[in-house]
Amino acid sequence: MSMPVPVPQSFALDLTRGVATITLDREKRLNALTFEVYRELAETFEQLDRLEEVRAVVITGRGRGFCSGGDQDDIIKHLLGRDTPALLSFTRATGRLIKAMRACRRPIVAAINGVAVGAGAVIACASDLRIAAANAKFGFIFPQVGLSGADMGVTYLLPRIVGLGHASELLLFGDLIDAARALEIGLVNRVVPDGEAAVKLGQEWAARLASGPAFAHSMTKQMIESEHTMALAEAIEAEAQAQALCMQHPDFAEAHASFKEKRPARFRGAASDPE
Question: Which string of DSSP letters, residue by residue, matches 74-87?
Answer without folding.
Answer: IIIHHHTT--HHHH
